[in-house]
From TrEMBL:
Residues 1-10 have a biased composition (Basic and acidic residues). It holds the Pfam family PQQ_2. Residues 37-52 have a biased composition (Gly residues). This is Outer membrane protein assembly factor BamB. Residues 464-574 form the Pyrrolo-quinoline quinone repeat domain.
Length: 597
């Protein structure tokens, strides 16, 4: 079955009719076939039209047209005999079936009713199978929730001594709560403690995604969980890495106390190690305008990026990022008085976006896939994220592949290049809009912002890059969700808008006043902290006061069909973390962690 969205002449989409996109809802219904045919002609008496050895005219004609054997032999007669035997068997089988068909009017009515019932049952079974596949695809995404049809209530809670410092990480079927010098594995549906691992107070567990800061919730569940801990008295620092499996089993080994590391997917551990150059901390000169200046002839260190197996320490890959001409602010930190300090190690930063790792520091910057593939051009100093500029300029796409800046275009507005999983590379005219939440289905469409308007391009193999539609009045800045043929975007005026993904036409608009943006529409993206969906409803955690003068959080549920506000929850707690694990929501509060459902 295919659902097709017709072009709306009144909407702001201006698609070409030949390029209206379609969405496959049911690819295949098990047990149902479009093929049809008959077993043979039926004689007037309901039989097979002749005796078992009768040669039908059509069959004789077919055989007359067959080519003769090239030379006398046993092969041709054998084939002829085999064909005749097969024909006789097929006709006898057809006759046997027809002799068992009802001959009365009532019997035929019952037979037709039975056949219809079988077809209906087969179609219903196919629909149920497709619905199950859709649910599985949805729950496999970081933003997938089992149901948002009604306002969720608190199902369970667990107290924490320091909840604000806690980290929630999704594992396969397990919610990991890292905090209070331990990691607890919790059943996300019931809150039951499955296991506990005692660690140190100073711990960092992951991999984690952009929880609490908006942006795409990308990445598969941590399998296993990697925790880096540090402790020490009297200036002697001890640093360990502990690998925690989904059943609570652990492995721990000691690290270099000075190592700069972060957890990575697949049980990996990423090391960032400056090598050579000047690394000593010291004050810097500030001019009359307050601008800091690096020492003359300053040469900073190169940076080695290495990924190893967290449990064993076995290296998976490594690369060296060469030191280049730095901007002063990429080499500085600030002391307790606010004075700038040259601090190469302290100024190093990194981000993990799904399958993309970016690192920026003093004169060094690079982007990698987690298999070690270098995404930026190490020979091109203008290739972002060069020199710490344009953080998150590379991104992982939810349907596979990645997007990065197009450095072949100079002197113009920034443009992206999309690298698709089937190998195609698509240069864009603007910048890609990566969805924060999806339903796990690939619609074969990528949205981009070109200047101040939005366009859509195909990502389907063989048609990749084709423009599907352009919406001149759609000034989308952020793609909050791409679900069930609807794109939910945030526009320049702070309104949340539902767009027909197939045509670009407007479906609905949620007024900025509903989100309490007021005259702060420009800050809308920084006050929406994520997006979650069950396929029919979109859940948006939104700051209760965008101005920041008061704390609080609002959970807003928006109907994806018409943009209606289904329900709202007001919370006094400031936003910390909201996470979906196996389709169940868990949230950090001022007292601990609660499960919502």
């Amino acid at each position: 079955m295919t659902e097709r969205t017709e072009h709306d002449e009144t909407g702001n989409g201006t698609p070409e009719p030949s390029k209206v996109h379609t969405f496959d809802l049911i690819d295949e219904v098990p047990g149902v076939s479009d093929a049809g045919g008959t077993d043979g002609a039926e004689g007037p008496d309901g039989g097979d039209g002749g005796g078992p050895d009768t040669v039908e005219p059509d069959a004789a004609a077919d055989r007359a047209d067959e080519p003769a054997p090239r030379a006398p032999g046993r092969v041709a007669p054998a084939l002829t005999g085999a064909r005749a035997a097969v024909g006789r068997t097929a006709r006898r089988g057809g006759a046997a079936v027809r002799r068992r068909l009802p001959s009365t009017r009532r019997g035929k009515v019952l037979l037709v009713g039975s056949a219809v019932s079988v077809v209906v049952l087969a179609v219903a079974a196919g629909v149920l199978v497709d619905a199950r596949l859709r649910e599985q695809a949805l729950l496999a995404t970081p933003a997938g929730v089992r149901s948002l049809a009604t306002k969720p209530t608190q199902l369970w809670s667990t107290d924490l001594e320091n909840p604000i410092a806690a980290t929630l990480v999704a594992m396969p079927g397990v919610l990991a709560i890292a905090g209070d010098a331990k990691v607890r594995g919790v059943d996300p549906a019931s809150g039951e403690d499955l296991w506990t691992v005692d660690l140190e107070k100073d711990l960092s567990c992951g991999p984690t995604t952009h929880r609490g800061t908006g942006g795409p919730a990308s990445g598969a569940p941590a399998d296993p969980l990697v925790c880096v801990t540090s402790s020490g008295d009297g200036g002697e620092r001890v640093q360990n890495v502990t690998v925690v499996e989904a059943d609570g089993a652990t492995q721990t080994r000691e690290l270099d106390p000075a190592a700069q590391v972060m957890p990575a997917p697949g049980g990996g551990l990423i090391h960032f190690e400056p090598l050579g150059g000047e690394q000593e901390q010291r004050p810097v000169v500030v001019d009359k305008l307050g601008a800091p200046h690096l020492p003359k002839a300053f040469v900073g260190p190169d940076l080695t990026v290495r990924v190893e197996d967290a449990a064993t320490g076995t290296e998976r890959w490594s690369d060296t990022v060469a030191f280049g001409a730095p901007r002063p602010d990429s080499c500085l930190t600030y002391d307790e008085t606010g004075a700038p300090v040259l601090d190469v190690a302290g100024a190093l930063g990194w981000d993990l976006h799904g399958d993309v790792l970016e690192v920026q520091g003093c004169g060094v910057s690079a982007a990698f896939l987690l298999d070690g593939t270098r995404l930026d051009d190490p020979e091109n100093a203008d290739d972002p994220p060069a020199d710490g500029v344009d953080t998150a300029s590379f991104a992982s796409l939810p349907d596979g592949g990645w997007v990065g800046p197009d450095t072949a275009v100079t002197g113009a507005a920034p443009r992206d290049v999309v690298h698709l999983p089937h190998g195609a590379t698509v240069p864009l005219e603007g910048q890609a809009l990566v969805p924060w939440a999806t339903d796990g289905r690939d619609p074969g469409i990528l949205l981009e912002r070109v200047g101040v308007h939005a366009e859509a391009r195909s990502t389907v193999e063989g048609d990749a890059g084709a423009r599907l539609w352009s919406a001149p009045r759609l000034r989308a800045t952020t793609l909050l969700a791409r679900v069930s043929g609807t794109a939910v975007v945030l526009d320049e005026q702070g309104a949340v808008r539902g767009i027909d993904l197939g045509t670009g036409a407007d479906r609905w608009t949620l007024d900025p006043e509903v989100l309490s943006f007021g005259d702060m529409a420009w800050a809308a993206e920084s006050t929406i902290f994520g997006a979650y969906t069950d396929g029919d409803t979109l859940l948006l955690p939104v700051s209760a006061d965008p101005s920041g003068s008061a704390s609080g959080l609002r959970l807003l549920a928006v109907d994806l069909r018409d943009g209606a506000l289904r329900w709202e929850i007001e919370q006094e707690t400031p936003y910390t973390q909201l996470i979906s694990v196996d389709g169940y929501l868990a949230q950090v509060t001022q007292e601990g962690v609660v499960g919502l459902g």
